[in-house]
Specification:
This protein has 428 residues and is of the alpha/beta class. It is built from 16 helices and 14 strands. Helices cover 43% and strands 17% of the residues.
Length: 428
């Protein structure tokens, strides 16, 4: 493992790629069927998030705001705004759940959203997500924890075939679907919380809805307490797993830091074999493992002579860096949005929490960039290769169907990185 430098040493971010906690909370609530996210804050915070995700997913995004102004925040607090917002929402649509989450303005004022929630006579889950703390990953994780603590019913029974998957925020909808399908291949019935695999997966619905369409239902969330297995993916999701295990002490928990690369994929398959009693996975799984092994060999020639910069959320970094490392790629620089336990484990020469200005100053240390759309200008200016991953990607379509995990996705990811590296060398 390389040098870990948790801070870039600057008093501010100059060219940031970090996203806020409220944006992570919004995305998590969109993984609940017929849920209406209600962002408690200024209109600008909500409109920015709505436009951001609409552009990334190429889908209409349902979200409402309490439209707090600085004057309202100081003089009145947010109680009235929240209650009125719920009334206005339920006059027009009938959501299964309202997802109330905060921004920096009401958090600075100190609004008691738990107290306000008790005054609202409508199904509602609340979560404190100030945007001056954490980031996209923690906002998602806090919301998942809130959904569990406020909705899941305590249980003593166990459904021997039921599995709950707790995916981190950077897992794309198709990746969540692949994890569910892998569990189902071992005879389990899989539920993901939150579940973007059927809500923001890019399917053509019957009509445009004012609410999120697809995802796990509120009734399904309430009944998660009888699952036999809890699988948490990404270190950010460990607290959510702990919250769910409190609902039923008989549940068993397995944690995966990520599912990128051969070793991590093998670890998950081994757990599913042990838990199901199945001694040999389905032929398709065995075949994809062989394909990933071959992909590692085929991509090694290109990746072995490529120095990589990877930027993103901590759990996302863990997956991408390990996949590249296993195929002989050298991650010379990894830049994270926020600090995390993941950063201590990254197979990278240099790890820091920073921004794209830091990436520019370290330009001599890498050839290929794996990062989001904000890295594109950097790659063009510095004549680097680029593989677009993470939020946002506003230039390419099909973001929700990009798969980088388990055997199948791992092979695709290595091919894309190796091809980008080759194209960069030929262009140079």
């Amino acid at each position: 493992m390389g040098e870990v430098k948790h801070k870039s040493g600057k008093p501010l971010q100059v060219n940031p790629f970090k996203l806020s906690q409220p944006m992570g909370a919004t995305l998590a609530f969109l993984g609940v069927d017929q849920c209406m996210p209600l962002m408690h804050g200024g209109q600008g915070c909500t409109s920015f998030t709505k436009v951001y995700y609409t552009r990334h997913f190429c889908e209409p995004i349902a979200i409402q705001t309490s439209a707090v102004t600085d004057a309202i925040a100081v003089l009145d607090g947010g109680d009235y705004s929240i209650v009125e917002s719920v009334k206005n929402i339920t006059k027009k649509v009938t959501p299964s759940l309202i997802g109330l989450h905060t921004t920096g303005l009401p958090e600075t004022k100190g609004d008691d959203i738990a107290g306000v929630a008790s005054q609202v006579d409508y199904p509602l889950v609340y979560v404190n997500t100030p945007d001056y703390e954490g980031g996209l990953e923690s906002g998602w994780a806090l919301t998942c924890q809130a959904l569990i603590e406020q909705l899941v019913q305590e249980d003593t029974d166990i459904d021997a075939k039921k599995v709950v998957i707790l995916p981190h925020v950077s897992l794309q909808p198709i990746e969540v679907e692949k994890i569910k399908q892998t569990c189902e291949a071992f005879g389990f019935t899989a539920f993901a919380l939150p579940d973007l695999s059927t809500s923001l997966d890019g399917h053509l619905g019957e009509k445009q809805s004012a609410l999120s369409s697809g995802g796990i239902s509120v009734d399904e969330i309430k009944e998660l307490g009888d699952a036999t297995l809890v699988l948490s993916i990404g270190d950010s999701m460990q607290k959510s797993a702990t919250a769910l295990l409190k609902k039923n002490p008989q549940m068993r928990h397995h944690h995966f830091s990520h599912l990128g690369g051969l070793e991590a994929s093998d670890a998950m398959i081994e757990i599913l074999m042990q838990e199901s009693g199945i001694e040999l996975p389905q032929p398709a799984i065995v075949r994809w493992r062989k394909r990933l092994q071959d992909a590692m060999l085929d991509s090694h020639f290109s990746l072995g002579q490529t120095r990589c910069l990877v930027v993103g959320e901590p759990d996302q970094l863990a997956s991408a860096c390990q996949s590249l490392y296993e195929a002989g790629g050298r991650v010379t620089v990894a830049i994270s949005t926020v600090d995390s336990s993941q950063l201590e484990k990254l197979p990278a020469d240099r790890v820091l929490v920073g921004d794209l200005e830091d990436a520019e100053q370290l330009a001599d240390e890498y050839d290929l960039i794996v990062g989001n759309f904000h890295c594109e200008a950097l790659a063009h200016r510095l004549h680097k290769g680029l593989v677009l991953r993470g939020f946002p990607n506003w230039e390419q379509v099909g973001n929700s169907l990009k798969n980088d995990i388990l055997y199948e996705g791992g092979a695709y990811f290595l091919f894309e990185c190796a091809n980008a590296a080759n194209a960069m060398r030929h262009a140079g």
